[in-house]
Amino acid sequence: MTYDVLERSSGVVSGESDLWCTYAAVRTLAWLGRTADLPAPESAAAFLTSRQNPDGGFAWSAGMSSDAWATYYCTQALADLPARSRGTVRSSSSDWVHSTAHADGGYAMTPGQASDVWATYYAVRTLVEIHGEQPPDELFGWLGALQAEDGGLAWSPAHAKNGTSDARACYYAVTAWSTATGGVGPLPWDRERLTAWLKDRQSPDGGFTFQAGDGTDCLWATFRTVSALSRLGEKPRDPEACVAWIRARLRPGGSFTRWPGYPVQDVWAAFCAVGALRELGADLDDLADGVVATILTFRTGQGGFTYRAPSLASDVLTTSAHVLGGTLRGSAARDALRWTEGCMLPNEDGIMYMPGRGSEVRCTLWALSAAAFDGDASARTRIAHWLTGAIQNPDGGFGYWEGRASDMVSTSSAAEILYRTAGPGADAARRGIAQYVAGCETEPGRYANVPGGRPTLRSTLQALRALWRATAGADVDRVAETLARHRVRGGGWANEDNRIPDLLSTYEAVLTADTFGLDWDIDHLTRFVDRVRTADRGFAWTPLMPTSGGPLADCLGRRLELRLSPSRHPLPPLALS
What we know:
- The protein is an all-alpha fold.
- It has helices at residues 4-8, 19-31, 41-49, 68-80, 92-98, 117-130, 138-144, 157-161, 167-181, 191-199, 219-231, 239-247, 267-279, 285-296, 316-324, 330-341, 361-369, 377-391, 408-421, 427-439, 457-471, 476-486, 503-515, 522-532, 551-564, and strands spanning 441-443, 446-447.
- It has a two-stranded antiparallel sheet.
- Strand 1 (441-443) and strand 2 form a beta hairpin.
- It is globular and about 70 Å long.
């Protein structure tokens, strides 16, 4: 695959700061001792603190539920900023992290979800480094159960039984252990087998891959592997070759790119390269000025950061939304789709939210719905294999990305993707989806986003559609009962009860009714669409909001308008939360 299309960026930019990017930028500046170079650090702090919810946790985006991922990135980035600009992190964030503790000894991304090593790493670092608290001793038994037969560490104890080791999982587990213990005390794994597996990920060129069998070295894998080895008191088999490989990714006078052949200097390449070189004890003085200057060009008007210069920082969800909403047509739409199709990591075959990140299930569904890879049977088959062979969890469900615990949004999205891309060989994957959905049923016909969670309209509709795609069987009466229960008399549907309608729930209600051949009231939907249409013909997430919710909301609103039009355009199977 060539990546030239990503360098010039034919996708659509949102212009907004991204949480992951902001954390990576601030931490890289801190490693280089250059946070004083950050203009108006209080604006970065304001962006980060705006993600805190009343429950004390932080969310990826304002208005979303708290998760361990966002809570770690926000609190750590705030801690790295100059003290005078940090703002205030409420102490209740500690209580929220404790609420994610799982009975098995690990931590979940959200309360009630299954534990995984991503979430456990985030929770332990937040508790120890931000709040000065220690996790319970049960953590170490859970971490010890991550070692797979090949010697590496897996995403969860259930993954370890299948031998699914990954360098990222090794780093997260080893760092959770070293953070909780100070790097002293008994190691919960067989050291020799673990260090051998990690060292075996180094290629003759000097870089590292995530897993056995991967074909392309990348900086993310290199940083995570080198860091895991460092915390174990070890080094790569050829540290000099590793330093040389990392430095070969450095652009003259600038910053780093992620892997050979990839042309974009982005924030996670800088983060990974500087982080890895620090772990290897390499000198950074000669490259610091270029890296800092480049990172500072990634600042947005909101005060946080995106992954590259904001004018070129396209993302798949925004781009897909513009294609689906009809604001891009003809050659502009075709160029946007070609850009989207380039958003794949080497060694992964799903589509990323932003280039250089890991592949995500929801983003892949949005891209395919916008017609990415239409007519490319080979690419669509690779996507199906990515789902069935790489990221389906042992419980049968799917998470946002590889190794993350299952949730209904991702599982329903995966079911839709498999319906469009996979042949009979996906039968086992579909049986797993049905198994996961069954585990989320809280009472007959009602489903939560995760087992044991609270049922809502959207999670129930997602579950019913996933079952339909997985088994071709469904109780249509249950669908009708669910839609009736959450129908708002004045127009639209509500995610909880039947009082305040919202755009996401209304979109999924109409989509589900269409999927099951159920009628709906045109006047009822028209009243809702009219209430969320804004003065500039955008769309708000709820009638209570006076302004557009942005490109994703505008896309969903426009698709509902098209569904109401005389042509009755079908709704793409989109989901967000």
